[in-house]
Specification:
The structure holds two protein chains of two kinds.
Chain A: H1 5-38, H2 42-76, H3 86-118, H4 121-126, H5 132-150, H6 157-176
Helix pairs in contact in A: 1-2, 1-5, 2-3, 3-5
Chain B: H1 18-40, H2 64-67, H3 83-90
Classes of the chains: A mainly alpha, B mainly alpha.
């Protein structure tokens, strides 16, 4: 199942946009999360918590799902395959893990945003957004990015078997054709 | 700097690339660290309840005055505890 070049380029463009956009959105999320911990302005803290929920729900989650989906389509529609090369397989696993962790964070983030929306100034300044998950997520996304840019060599056992099969078929064909 | 450039993809016998082994070791070490932190409680309580006032014994809980009337749904939210209880737990 190989995509035509125009379709492949389109999927690649969407994949790159969503993947890099995901990283950018996490950085924006981090800036707001830091603001909830450092700002002494209660209204700023409230706004940051509300923005964290909006960014998560309407930016991070859609970009994560788009990145995962287009990554799978891109792999299956090109000779790279999904399970043949370690860099593709590891990128897939890390993207799935990052997406699942992100989805589990949706409800707690919404909960805190709900609290921040109604809290008074003193309570607002006592609230703090989580930094562990976004920092960890950013590191994982950067690892994926490096893998995708450098594409380090290395076939999986499955990819190696497939390559051997193709090589044998090619050799048989060349023997049969004098 | 003379060296023979080998192409792993074209070798006749299969071997796992070195970078995959290194990455695997890093992942295992990190996973063990996370397990140790969770088991020993060094990282505090896991879950949304951790996002708490820092002056409150490790600060992982929204002030109880603001959580009143908010009932978080989902198992992950069940870890929210009032600040006083949390402070006792830290002792």
């Amino acid at each position: 199942m190989t995509m035509t070049p125009p379709l492949r380029k389109f999927v690649l463009a969407v994949h790159l946009t969503s993947s890099v956009g995901w990283i950018g959105a996490v950085v924006a999320y981090l800036a707001l999360a830091v603001a909830t911990r450092t700002s002494q302005d209660a209204q700023m803290v409230r706004a940051a918590f509300l923005a964290l929920e909006l960014i998560t729900r309407f930016v991070l989650v859609p970009l994560a799902l788009a990145s995962l989906l287009t990554g799978i389509v891109q792999s299956l529609g090109t000779p790279w395959g999904l399970f043949r090369h370690y860099w593709v397989l590891i990128s897939l696993l890390l993207t799935i893990i990052a997406t699942l962790v992100l989805l589990t964070r949706l409800e707690p983030i919404s909960f805190l945003a709900g609290i921040a929306a109604e809290a008074d100034s003193a309570d607002l300044l006592a609230l703090e957004a989580d930094l562990l998950h976004p920092v960890g997520g950013l590191l994982v996304l950067l690892v994926i990015q490096v893998l995708n840019v450098y594409k380090p060599r290395g076939l999986t056992p499955y990819g190696w078997r497939k390559q051997q099969e193709r090589r044998k078929q090619h050799e048989q064909r060349t023997v049969l054709q004098p | 700097m003379s060296q023979t450039h080998t192409k792993p993809d074209r070798e006749s016998t299969y071997s796992t690339p070195r970078w995959v082994k290194v990455l695997g070791i890093i992942v295992i070490v990190l996973a063990l660290l996370v397990v140790v932190v969770l088991v020993t409680g060094l990282g505090g309580e896991h879950g949304p309840g951790r996002h708490a006032p820092s002056g409150d014994a490790g600060g992982d809980t929204p002030p109880s005055s603001v959580t009143e009337g908010h009932t978080p749904s989902g198992a992950d939210l069940g870890v929210y505890t009032p600040p006083i209880e949390h402070g006792v737990q830290q002792l």
